[in-house]
Automatic annotation (TrEMBL):
Alphabetized InterPro entries for the sequence: RHS_repeat (IPR031325), YD (IPR006530)
Record protein name field: Rhs protein
Top-rank taxon, per record: Bacteria
């Protein structure tokens, strides 16, 4: 307002009996969270309110997929899919971006991260 007041924004959280976040609500959207029997997050779905619609907030759903070891292997969004690959020690080895590019993680034999590269182009090199 004209009296130097800060705009107010309230967020309400809904949790289940074991404390997992089920929903987050504010003036422009509601986000619902869904879990599997293993307590892993399966999806987050955003639904805009009338206020949100006027502000340009869009409905959106994010989905998460896990392997038998419980590791995240895929995130699906309206913008595309992220895919995760792991080595036998469960170190992330490749993150495939929605563009098809590969963010590669290279490790020392000890398991410490050695290098990050994007399709072979060096991003960071760590020395021990």
């Amino acid at each position: 307002g004209d009296k130097g007041e800060q705009p107010r924004r309230s967020t309400f959280l809904e949790r289940d009996p074991i404390g997992r976040l089920l929903a987050k609500l504010n003036d422009d959207a509601r986000q619902d969270y869904e879990y599997d029997d293993g307590d892993r997050l399966l999806s987050i779905q955003r639904k805009q309110t009338d206020t949100g619609r006027k502000l340009g907030v869009t409905a959106e759903k994010l989905e998460f997929t896990y392997d038998l070891l419980g590791r995240l292997v895929k995130e699906t969004t309206p913008q595309g899919t992220l895919a995760y690959d792991y080595d036998p020690l469960s170190n992330l080895t490749t993150l495939t971006l929605p563009t098809g590019q590969h963010l590669n993680h290279l490790y020392y034999g000890s398991g410490h991260l050695h290098q990050l590269n994007l399709d072979g182009q060096l991003i960071s090199d760590m020395e021990r």
